[in-house]
Amino acid sequence: MNNNEIRILLVDDEPDILEIVGYNLSAEGYEVFTASNGVDAVAKAKKKKPHLIIMDVMMPEMDGIEACGIIRNTQGLENAIITFLTARGEDYSQVAGFDAGADDYITKPIKPKVLVSKVKALLRRLKDEAEDSEDITRVGSIVINREEYKIVNKGVEIILPRKEFELLALLASKPSKVFKREVILDKVWGNEVVVGGRTIDVHIRKLREKIGEEHFKTVKGVGYKFVL
Hints:
Layout: E1 7-11, H1 15-27, E2 31-35, H2 38-48, E3 52-55, H3 64-72, E4 81-86, H4 91-99, E5 104-107, H5 112-132, E6 136-139, E7 142-145, E8 150-153, E9 156-158, H6 162-172, E10 179-180, H7 181-189, H8 199-211, E11 216-219, E12 223-226
Parallel strand pairs: 1-2, 1-3, 3-4, 4-5
Antiparallel strand pairs: 6-7, 7-8, 8-9, 10-12, 11-12
Helix pairs in contact: 1-5, 2-3, 4-8, 6-7, 6-8
């Protein structure tokens, strides 16, 4: 996929951020759309179907975390990459963002060229994962369809946020194998992304709720494994 085929939605209530970041992303050839609040972001996302959404947290009318949750539950937007760009660096805010379905968390201030590099890394990882993975994996009663980013468990279709899907696909790729926490972070979030220590735990909790508690086992002090 060429840069001019990639749609990016930039959401921030600061006009300067929209102008500067938008200019730098457009200079790379990306098709950039903007919104100034969460309500507008949801509407634009539904209309434009962006591949990547870069969104502030603290905004008028609807904050970024609430908007992220709505977008994640909107058909056709489940696989959009969502990264928060915000001055709020507190750990609890990061956990809330990941809990809502965010893929990344970038703290302001950040140089435009550094942000562009992060955007390229996110989009490159998306392409690499799609190329390197099998389209369909079957483990017990669970079918993992990577082409459609869809899970079917006991005949019931389940739509997961992107990182939950990737975490499940990783663990289920080798049932009973214990994946160390650092391996999970590397494979699912990538080395260029700095996340809080509780991020994996939050995603595992969500998978237990949606797929079944019995499938995810904690190996204390090491990591997690998928069991049939």
